Amino acid sequence: MEERLFIALFICILAGTCAANKTALPSEHCEQEPDPGICRGMLKKWFYNATSFRCETFYYGGCNGNDNRFDTFGECRKNCRDPVLGVCALPERKQICRAGFRGYRFDPLKQRCVSYIYCEHNGNHFPTEDACQHRCGKFAQDPCLLPKHAGRNCSRSSRMENFWFNSETKACEPFDYEGCGGN
Q1: What is the pLDDT of residues 28-49, one digit of tens each?
Q2: Which of 128, 147, 148, 164 is deepest in the core (most CB within 10 A)?
Q3: How far is CA 133 from the centre of its chain?
Q4: Which CATH fold would you assign to the domain 90-140?
Q5: 118 with 146: CB under 8 angstroms?
Q6: CA quadruple 93, 94, 95, 101: dihedral positive or negative?
Q7: 21 phi and psi angles, rounded to 5 deg
Q8: How far does Cα 111 stand from its chain's mean position?
Q9: CB 125 within 8 A of CB 103
Q10: What UniProt keywords are attached to this protein's entry (predicted)?
């Protein structure tokens, strides 16, 4: 932790300013495993998974436990995920414009670089998918580790066969895709 603070201080000195509202370093508690505590309650809480770079749910017993526990996704995101992802966590700027440009941004919910149309942009903007991958790719979820997700039926068309990688059998397996959504 001291090393992180030293690096942050060094960057502030080089930049000539240290603003409190800039991206902060996450606390060490963000790296703790979720701890349900010793009581028997079943309270749904959020914790930051430092391996997957995601805020995930777990059930807290109601007493003891550790500090990697949040009441809402938003609290978890603000305290742990966004400081880790830095500019890669910045939301897309919602705007209406007549003529937009195509660029790429990292979508922290989908955990991948996505194409988007923009007029103005923030720090989570890249001219190419490769540039986005170079800066934010380390936070991307390996698609081979994602669970099978049939999506949802969004049209009158019938289901179509698709494939997913089953990490337990180490093989691609067919499934019926509904037509929209999924992963």
Answers
A1: 889 999 999 999 999 999 999 8
A2: 164
A3: 14
A4: Factor Xa Inhibitor (4.10.410)
A5: no
A6: positive
A7: -90, 5
A8: 5
A9: yes
A10: Disulfide bond, Protease inhibitor, Serine protease inhibitor, Signal
Farthest-apart Cα atoms in the chain, separation: 60
Answer for the pair 131, 104: CB distance below 8 angstroms, yes or no: yes
State how far the Cα of 54 lies from the Cα of 105, in Å rounded to an integer.
Answer: 17
Q: Residue count of the chain, please give it.
A: 183
Q: How far apart are the C-alpha atoms of 114 and 130, rounded to whole Å?
A: 11
Asked whether the predicted pLDDT for residue 148 surpasses 70, the reply is: yes
- Taking domain 26-87, whether its CATH number is 4.10.410.10 is answered by yes
Section 127-148 average pLDDT? 84
Q: Where are the domains of the chain?
A: 26-87, 90-140, 144-177
Six token digits for residue 98: 């007549």
Q: Which two tokens stand for residue 43?
A: 């309270």
